[in-house]
């Protein structure tokens, strides 16, 4: 697999039109030398009047993030503002208030584990200081970012902090993870992990171990999130057919099960989401 291929869906922030009224989000491509491990860098800024709040809701992706978060802190953020966020297994809600500035490096699934040589299973659903996970020089470089940096300049600083980490990384297991992810994203007919086992000649246990160490969650969870992202994207793009047909197309043959999964992740039933606004 060409590691420069996208390893993430286009699904992301829910209610993007409302979000854009409260905050500015910019995604920046990383330095080519970092592309084997990094999906992109994103820059978020907001400045709200006193007493105004907005709850940003984001669909979870199977990716770890290195970020610098300045300004009004989000709940659960440690005192150290250079943090690593492991894979979040539920909808990611953040209340935006007052003013804030965030620069995030979004790793590919397994990218942080491969680049840093760590097992990320213990990071799932956690936000922890980057110190102790990444080299001191990387953390020091991230501390150079300020809330006056524009997206391009901030991304360049983050790139410089990370450059060199991958010089000696030769991780064949990570290559396997990327090939599995490539199939999950590229072939919408894959709706069961058993299909990946047959295609790649791997056992259930082998795939589970790879995803636990490199991604921090199960292959079934990752596949389910990608297919749910497909569903949300289809609805955002104006799908007006049968919800039962849409569910079946992405692996749900029980519409009640589909409705429960959708509601648990998105917060409203699929019919309400489609009819919003």
TrEMBL record:
InterPro entries: AraC_XylS_family_regulators, DUF6597, Homeodomain-like_sf, HTH_AraC. Residues 175-276 form the HTH araC/xylS-type domain. Keywords: DNA-binding, Transcription, Transcription regulation. GO terms for molecular function: DNA-binding transcription factor activity; sequence-specific DNA binding. Transmembrane segments: none annotated. Pfam families: DUF6597 (PF20240), HTH_18 (PF12833). This is AraC-like DNA-binding protein. It comes from Mumia flava.
């Amino acid at each position: 697999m060409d590691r420069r291929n996208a390893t993430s869906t286009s699904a992301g922030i829910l209610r993007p039109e409302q979000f854009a009224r409260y905050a500015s989000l910019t995604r920046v491509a990383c330095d080519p030398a970092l592309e084997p491990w990094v999906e992109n860098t994103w820059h978020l800024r907001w400045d709200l009047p006193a007493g105004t709040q907005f709850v940003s809701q984001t669909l979870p992706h199977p990716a770890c993030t290195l970020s610098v978060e300045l300004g009004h802190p989000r709940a659960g953020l440690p005192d150290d503002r250079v943090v690593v966020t492991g894979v979040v297994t539920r909808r990611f809600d953040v209340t935006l208030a007052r003013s804030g500035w965030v620069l995030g490096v979004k790793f590919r699934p397994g990218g942080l584990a491969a680049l840093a040589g760590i097992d990320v299973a213990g990071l799932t659903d956690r936000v922890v200081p980057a110190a102790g996970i990444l080299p001191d020089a990387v953390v020091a470089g991230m501390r150079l970012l300020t809330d006056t940096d524009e997206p391009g300049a901030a991304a360049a600083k983050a790139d410089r902090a990370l450059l060199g980490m991958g010089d000696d990384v030769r991780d064949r297991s990570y290559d396997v993870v990327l090939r599995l992810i490539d199939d999950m994203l590229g072939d919408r007919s894959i709706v069961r992990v058993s299909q990946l086992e047959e295609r790649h000649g791997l056992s259930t246990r082998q795939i589970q171990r790879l995803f636990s160490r490199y991604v921090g969650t199960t292959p079934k969870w990752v596949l389910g999130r990608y297919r749910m992202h497909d569903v949300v994207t289809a609805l955002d793009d104006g799908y007006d057919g049968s919800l039962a047909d849409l569910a079946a197309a992405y692996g749900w043959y029980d519409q009640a099960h589909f409705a429960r999964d959708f509601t648990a992740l998105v917060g409203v039933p699929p019919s309400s989401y489609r009819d919003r606004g």
